[in-house]
Structure formats: C-alpha cells, structure tokens
Specification:
By secondary structure, this protein is an alpha/beta fold. It contains 18 helices and 20 strands. The strands form four sheets. It has an eleven-stranded mixed sheet with strand order 6-3-7-8-9-10-11-15-14-13-12, sandwiched between helices. α13 links the parallel β8 and β9. α11 runs parallel beside α13. The radius of gyration is 23 Å and the shape is globular.
Length: 523
C-alpha cells in the first residue's frame, strides 16, 4: 500500500536512526513539543469554526459523492443544502448499505466513493454478522491524525512530552490482513498498526509477531512477558482489556501495583466503552497517579477525543471528512425521524449519531448515542447504544443511567466492580417482575441487600419511567446476582469474543445473555 497518497501528517523532523538509542529516544520528546504546539493551535482554531466546517464538509461530500453510483441513484447532483440532503439521503444501517458493499466486493468502482476503498475494516454486528466498513485514501487520515492529535493536544495542554521517550502499548488486532474482493481487510486496529510512524516503531509494544496471535489468552500472556521488564510510559486499549492485563501483571509479580512495576507510566489512553464503571478498579490496580485520556474511535471514523486532561467531554472532530447528524433518541426507529445538524443541537439531550463520510457512508447510523456537554466548543459524552436498553415494561433504561447508578452504589459501599450486565426477569415464580443485575465484584459488599437497594434508588432518581413502575407496583426492587471471579472472562471466551475490542453488552431486553451466565452465578 506504499503507493497510496494521503494527507497523513507525520512529525516534520528528520531523526538520525543510526544515533545511539538513548539520544534518539530523548530527541523524540524534545522535538515533539513544537509540533504539539502547532497541532494544538490548529485544533483550538477549529473550535470556533465547527459549524462552518461542517457545512463545508457536507458540500465536499455532495460534490464528490454525486459522481458515484450511489450519488446518481439518490440524486446528489441536485442537492444544494442540508434540507435537500435529508430528502435525498435516508438514515440507514449496514443492512441497507450492504448491496453497495457487495458491488465493491465484486470489483465495481465509484460505488459509494470515488475509485475503490483501500481497506475494509472488518467488524462484528449484532444483527448483520460480519460487517465490512470501507476505508478510502481520503478517509484514512481521519483515523491516523485523530490518534496523533489526541496525544499532541495532551502534550501541549499538560506540558508533558517525556512519555514519548519510553515504551508504549498500541494494542491492535492482527496486522495480518486478508483480501475480500481484492481489498486488504482486517480489524481497524490492525489496519492502523501499519501506519504507526517509523519514529515510534522502536517504542511500540507488543511486537508485530505477538500482535498477530489470534488466541486472546496466549496473546495476553506474551504481552505480559514482553512488557514486564520494560520502561512502559503509555498504555492504550479498552478498559476491560487493560484491567485483565493489569491483573495478569500483578499475579505474576506477587501482587504488586502497576506503578510499582512501571514507575514511569504516565498516560492511559482508553475508549470504546464508558470508562466510569471500570475507573475505581483500574485506579486501585495502578496504585499511583496516571493521566487518563479518552477517545471515541470506531471503524466508521475517529469521532472525538479528550483535548483537555481532566476536563469533561470529548471534542467532536468536525473538519475531517465526516458530516454529523443527530437524531433525538425518542425518534430512533421512526420512518421520518427528526434530523439535526451540529448548529441545532442542545446540551444534555440524548441523540443517536448519524454520519456521512468520505469513506462512502451516507446517512449511516453507527448505533451509538451521545449527548453534548458543551456547545462552545462542541464536546460530547458517549451515553450508550441505540439497540442496548431495557424497556420490557416501558421504562427505556439506557446505559448512561445504569452506569450512573452503579458508580454511586459502588462508592457508597466502598466496592469495585469488574463487570456487569442487566436483563429483565419477566416470568417469575412469585411476586412482581424485576431487573436482574449480574455483577462481578472485586470484593463483594458486606451488605448485598443494601447495595441492591442503593442501586435501585439511584436508578429511580435517574429514570422517571422506572420510578413510576416501582411506585405503581409494576416492578419490584432490582435483584443483584454476584458472579464468580472470572465469570465474564469465562462467558466471553465461551462465545468466542474474549479480548481485543470486544465488550460485554450492558443491557438486554431478552434473557439470552442472562441464561448463559447462570453457570457463573456465585452461590
């Protein structure tokens, strides 16, 4: 793929890679500082022009997309503004896009975007099986520069660049790619692994060979071996993976805290799931101060990142080939939902996120819900999934609400949560139906009944419909099922989804996950 042209911006420096390693490592952090200042300034300026930038992105997408098979079928040539765009382009999911993906697989060009994709990002769908998300030469810079800007903004805001002198974990799926319709195909993280700049390759762990291991536990064991004696300064990954990695490191080192093993560890980069339910346990495992940076990456695009350490919300990436639309959660699933552009959103409201991109996604609902914590600048928080909620009784409880309740209860009872999921218990042997919480504790609370009551009360305060069902004697107080140690690891392994970017589904409207978990319930 070396012939691909793009506007991915490496550090504009020439490092002498034949210089002694100690000098070479120090030079990275030294020369990164002025570049971080340049990128940080550019990001700050973009905050003031976000709405105008979104308008420009839409016009660019319409102009380029109008010459594609998709664009001609949807009349993009006649689209002049956002109102026209909404009439021409319906909101769609992967199934509605699949016929166009199949054309690309069959070798057709100019289908969704000009030419052909340079990659397919392979991802698992809940209803579509394996999904193939196109990545084009125009869209790949969004993924690479998004990760770059995250770290450079952190450098500029914190003044800390010394982490660039140590070893860093960039956990990825296998960088070995298959071909689908002649197009290199693999996990997004495996694709992005090919774009790690040369000046960082010497810092990167685990090794290429270890990243290629498919079995998760074998891979994790090798990662522990490769990193245990290294000067680790940055670790990135989803929180469940990091916790498992920390647990294995601690077990192999007489229970030592991570900061004892890696005294120079300075930065944790996380994303993919809400961090709050994992935060207390991770901080306990760390045993010392480490800066946390949150990101919002997906196969469909690198959407947002935490541009200011210890600051609420992720800055929306508004000038990177992605046009965003926002559907109020109450309208999700309607034939003609209300669709809002960036300039029309309000803080505090939950929206389903819809994107059109220079990878050839059009009116594509990515399945995530967000809310704006600020509109000056536009910063968001990820609140859940559009298909992951409980409304078996009309309560429409979402992930943000149960995670809030869990954090409150865990703090009150001084306990750490490893993982949890919730399902409705509808057909009960006696009494009223209820929500059943399957919770794996690091150390179970002494008063489990009091813990459940606290969860219930906090959820009642957060969700008025749930409150009405409790007071109206439609539901009884939720029940907590403590799980055996390693329950969720065992469950994920049993369904072939252990490790990597795989996540436990928080909320279900049926009992499939709940019934599968019964063998791991603690007595």
């Amino acid at each position: 793929m070396s012939g691909i042209k793009n506007n991915i911006s490496p550090l504009p420096i020439n490092i002498n890679f034949d210089a002694p390693s100690k000098f070479r490592m120090k030079i990275k952090s030294f020369l990164a500082k002025p570049y971080a200042s340049i990128i940080h300034s550019k990001v700050r300026k973009g905050m003031a022009t976000a709405v105008a930038d979104q308008h420009a992105v839409l016009q660019y997408l319409i102009k380029t997309g109008g010459r594609t098979i998709f664009g001609k079928e949807h009349g993009l040539q006649s689209v002049k503004n956002y109102e026209d765009f909404k009439k021409a382009i319906p909101v769609r999911d992967y199934e509605a896009l699949k016929s166009y993906i199949d054309k690309i697989k069959n070798g057709d060009q100019n289908v969704l975007w000009k030419g052909k994709p340079i990659y397919f990002a392979k991802t698992s769908g809940t209803t579509s099986g394996v999904k193939y998300i196109p990545i084009t030469s125009d869209s790949i810079p969004n993924q690479i520069n998004g990760a770059r800007d995250t770290l450079l903004c952190y450098m500029a805001e914190s003044g800390n660049s010394s982490f660039a002198d140590g070893k860093m974990i960039f956990l990825s799926g296998s960088p070995e790619l298959e071909r689908v319709g002649g197009i290199p195909t693999g996990r997004l993280s495996g694709i992005v692994n090919h774009f790690v700049p040369r000046y960082l390759r010497g810092n990167q762990l685990p090794s290429y060979e270890t990243n290629c291991i498919e079995d998760w536990e074998t891979k994790l064991d090798k990662i522990v071996q490769e990193t245990m004696s290294e000067n680790m300064t940055l670790i990135s990954g989803i929180p469940p993976w990091m916790q498992m990695y920390f647990d294995w490191l601690s077990e192999r080192n007489d229970g030592k805290k991570i900061k004892e093993l890696f005294p120079n560890l300075q930065v944790i980069v996380h994303g993919g799931v809400n961090f709050d339910p994992y935060k207390a346990k991770l901080l306990n495992s760390l045993g010392g101060q480490v800066d946390m940076i949150e990101t919002f990456p997906a196969s469909e695009g690198f959407f947002a990142f935490q541009d200011k350490p210890n600051h609420e919300g992720l800055l929306l990436n508004t000038n990177s080939g992605i046009f965003y639309e926002f559907i109020p959660v109450a309208d999700v699933g309607k034939e003609n939902p209300e669709r809002l552009s960036l300039g029309e959103v309000k803080t505090g409201e939950n929206y389903a996120l819809v994107v059109s991109t220079n990878a050839g996604l059009w009116g594509y609902s990515i399945g995530d819900t967000i809310k704006f914590v600020s509109t000056d600048p536009y910063r968001i928080a990820v609140t859940g999934r559009t298909k992951h909620f409980i409304s078996a009784f009309g309560e429409h409880v979402i992930a943000e609400e149960v995670e809030y309740a869990m954090n409150k209860a865990a703090n009150e009872f001084n306990t750490h949560i490893i993982e949890f999921t919730i399902a409705p218990a509808i057909e009960v042997s006696e009494g009223l139906p209820y929500h059943e919480w399957f919770v794996e504790f690091d150390t179970p609370p002494a008063d489990l009944r009091g813990f459940a009551e606290s969860l219930n009360n906090h959820l009642r305060l957060k969700n008025i419909y749930y409150e009405d069902l409790i007071t109206g004697h439609i539901l009884q107080t939720l029940k907590v099922r403590p799980m055996k140690k390693g329950a969720f690891i065992g469950f994920m392994k049993s369904i072939g989804r252990l490790g990597g970017q795989n996540k436990v589904q928080r909320l279900s409207n049926d009992r499939k996950i709940a019934d599968a978990l019964t063998e791991w319930v603690a007595k």
